[in-house]
């Protein structure tokens, strides 16, 4: 899980621009992160906490943690009274109404988070989607970002933030669920055909390596490490994931034609991932524009910065 | 090819709404169609002509035919002097500059049609893409069309007009090239894996039926006819195309989550196509919203009406 020190380090020197003192919260599958931005849009402080188990579909425990984050910043930074808040969530999030429609991992259904948190925190609270918020931050802060772009986050699952002609696409919260894109790629085990999440997510890479090698690994970064140490099975599993990501990018190109595709998540630190996707994608393109494949810059704080930006603009 | 009588019949009773007297031209792979709209936005007359062979990448012959359409309406309808024009083209069309970037079938490259035609016709001329223009018309005139929708046209190739939150997506002319989406579907010949155009376009359906049955057919509607007459190979080829279209629709859903997918082109007249795609798509969806699969209403005049609408609005 991301630590307070990591958040402070990545965010150092960045600014959202002027606006209200803001609480930004990123609700993840295992951890929650909160930061306080001052009126200049600079990060003042960060807190993390484990994501609580939710007893039911109403996610009251998550609301409690967000409220506690707000209260703690109130105690520790009374000179920065929170005037606005933004919370980003996983799953299907309908931004227009601030509703957490559905989270497979955390179990909630149709929770009107924006309304509940606005009441609970006592300040206007905007709710958005974690991957779209991260995309918002990357698209806004990266240099030379074209108006048509996608940001693909590879984690336990795979999802994308899609920007079309300068606007993030939400479609009621259902856009960008690219982890679900079916791909067909050749593998050492024969043809793989199924949702890309089952071959190229961090979880799938670890699982496939463990199954094929007989060696248990904690996560996909261990597979990357093994590959760098010369492990052929690790290289094979990684190459198959990269090929599948190239196929998925070709689908993105066919539908919305982004000029840049930004990769986020731990695996995107590997040059092999970016170079391999570029090659696998170009091998599938014809008359199309090949998008620039690039690495996300904001790492684990992208969602928090994207949330912060929501307190600086009308979407 | 569409006849004048068909155009007049489909367009009867429809109106673009008030605006300038307008020339609308649809440049197809084999035929060109032109209509004259009056100030009330009603269709006055239609003309068709074969699409000329182009000697080079400048497409001067196509420009000549458009100019001749304008001149003929000038002679036959001197009471309706053309005040504005819109021309829709196949291939890659960049609307912002009115450029025909690329047409595989007609051979042009980077032709500044809007500028050339504005000079030649002596009235402001807008240039757009045939499939996006058809989508514009279907989206604008059909009842209860959601803001997130796609229109898939099945012809010699397959392409889509994509509407995101009420706006057509162009991405420099490269969006919606869904014929290129790779799909993997089981067929009687084993696994098909490749661009959907190679299995589900009208041309592919005819070609695959001819190859598998040993009986030459003129086109995909003959395959549909054979299927209705109980031909099992025709039913098989058609079912494989429909399954592939369902896979492609699942990709559209994963990326932009349309709430409606409208099918155009001759094959969309078959209930089996719409029902089959709906079934094949739903079999692939999980937590997603299943889009409503519907039939285009404007048939072969959708592109002309979409062109006409461009003279009624600022895009």
TrEMBL record, chains A, B:
Gene3D superfamilies: 3.30.420.40. CDD domains: ASKHA_ATPase_ROK. SUPFAM superfamilies: Actin-like ATPase domain. Pfam families: ROK. Belongs to the ROK (NagC/XylR) family. PANTHER family: BIFUNCTIONAL UDP-N-ACETYLGLUCOSAMINE 2-EPIMERASE_N-ACETYLMANNOSAMINE KINASE, ROK (REPRESSOR, ORF, KINASE) FAMILY. This is ROK family protein. The lineage of its organism: Bacteria, Bacillati, Actinomycetota, Actinomycetes, Micrococcales.
